[in-house]
Amino acid sequence: MSGHASRSVARLAAVQALYQMEVSAIGVEAVIREFTDHRFDRDIEGVGAEGGDGEGATLASADEGFFADLVRGVVAEQARVDAAIARRLAEGWRLERLDATVRAILRAGAFELARRPDVPTEVAIDEYVEVAKSFFEGTEPGFVNGALDGVAKDVRPARNEPTG
Q1: Cα angle value 20/121/88 (rounded, 5°)
Q2: Distance between CA 138 and CA 93 in Å, rounded?
Q3: What angle (nearest 5°) sits at the alpha carbon of residue 83, between those of residues 82 and 87?
Q4: Which candidate, 33, 40, 106, places its Cα nearest to that of 72?
Q5: Nearest-angstrom CA–CA distance, 100 and 122
Q6: d(CA 46, CA 37)
Q7: What is the CA radius of gyration of the chain?
Q8: Which residues pair with 43 in a beta bridge?
Q9: Model pTM?
Q10: Tens digits of per-residue pLDDT, 82-125?
Q11: How far apart are alpha carbons 95 and 144 in whole angstroms?
């Protein structure tokens, strides 16, 4: 699996882990361990590999270091991440009013925009919009796009200048 694809899987898994932590009160190291021990690169039965018979297919390869960095980072900097998101919500809206999955997507995206300068702004935003599309068919992906674009303007102002 390419580096890009393994990071995409890591982002999706990070959102799932953050959601799981919120709804079950599991700790950060326990959720990271659960994902690395039981969810990544696991053989699954009945799922056909490309042109294969289903034997030996794996769920997905993820950049496990990137996954762990995202999850630990969001937890360590949650107050700062939440404040960055809250600045971009409509007046009168609080982060707690958002769906828990949307919150997890925004938190991972905002952390990545603020703390992973190695990831281009457009890539980070597009990746989390795609994550949102994997959970929602309605307006949520557009909402994620707008909110993360706003966060990017706040945390990466030099990177958001017009290019021509």
Answers
A1: 65
A2: 19
A3: 115
A4: 33
A5: 24
A6: 21
A7: 16
A8: 58
A9: 0.84
A10: 999 999 998 888 898 999 999 999 999 999 999 999 999 999 99
A11: 13
